[in-house]
Amino acid sequence: MSAYQYFPGCSLYGTAREYDISVRAVFQALDIPLEELEGWICCGATPAHATSHLLATSLAAENLAKAARKSDRLITACAACYSRLLHAKHDLDSDPSLVEKVRRVGVDYRNGVEVLHIMDVLLDDFGVEALQSRTQERLKGLKVACYYGCLLSRPAKLIPREDPEHPHRMDDVLRACGAETVEWPYAIECCGAGLAMAHPEIIAQLSHKILTSAKNAGADVIAVGCPLCQTNLEIRQPDIQKVFGVKHDMPVVYFTQLLGIALGLQPKELGIDRLILNPMPKLSAALARQAASVGG
């Protein structure tokens, strides 16, 4: 199997380093070869497209152009990177004049690179049955609220593999590991994204609703695939307590970290020690309850 060209992006090299650690560990455990995209640059993330369409497109196009030199597929884990790469590819492939504009700023873009999320590789290339075989339902007894946020399932025209209103692919991955994924109404509600600095009160309000919904659905943990969502839902829990008088104690983990636990990897190998709220007590308690019920 040839290696997948992997675009980690800026967050996974900084504030979300644990996501990158867990992605690499899981893919290594599954014998899926990754090759980090050589010379990758920032995709523009959240701010660039609000400033300049040409800037945002050119940044993403540069990464697509680099990937095209080695492969016809580029994979990423960050929801924002995934969205920006998809948008740039769509806009460039449907507008020849835009291609000329990015070429004039020095980007030699060529059509032909498919942008995939790591969930696509896990589900469509590796396969659900193979995941089930490798994980042996080790997460059985754990109740997970899969949180997709704004970018992992929308817009529908760019993400045909997912249902924009009732996404399921993260659920599919974790159910293959034996986890019970709960039904809850806030799976695709916005966490406030980049308003964290300018309007923290909005983040606190939105995150409070999401965390409350997950708790009411009986979840032990929330699983995410977006660095900004993870940060907002985890780090704002003390702020929520100050504003609303409610103490949340809900671990917010990357879905790859749960997959890694199901594969038998150690928490430190998955960057779990870098999280603010340690999920291991709840994970261990949930799995122990299930083991006791089966044993009894």
Structural class: alpha/beta
Number of helices: 12
Element order: H for helix, E for strand: EHEHHEHHEHEHEHEHHEHH
Share of helical residues = 40-55%
Model regions low in confidence, pLDDT < 50 over at least 5 residues: none
Based on CA inertia axes, which overall geometry fits? globular
- From the N-terminal CA to the C-terminal CA, the straight-line distance is 44 Å
Strand order of the largest sheet: 2-1-3-4
Query: What share of the residues does DSSP label as strand, in percent?
Result: 5-15%
Largest sheet: 4 strands, parallel
Look at the structure and give the mean pLDDT: 94
What is this structure's SSE topology?
Layout: E1 4-7, H1 17-29, E2 34-36, H2 45-51, H3 53-68, E3 73-76, H4 79-94, H5 96-104, E4 114-117, H6 118-135, E5 143-146, H7 169-175, E6 180-181, H8 200-216, E7 221-224, H9 227-235, H10 237-244, E8 252-254, H11 255-262, H12 280-295
Parallel strand pairs: 1-2, 1-3, 3-4, 5-6, 5-7, 7-8
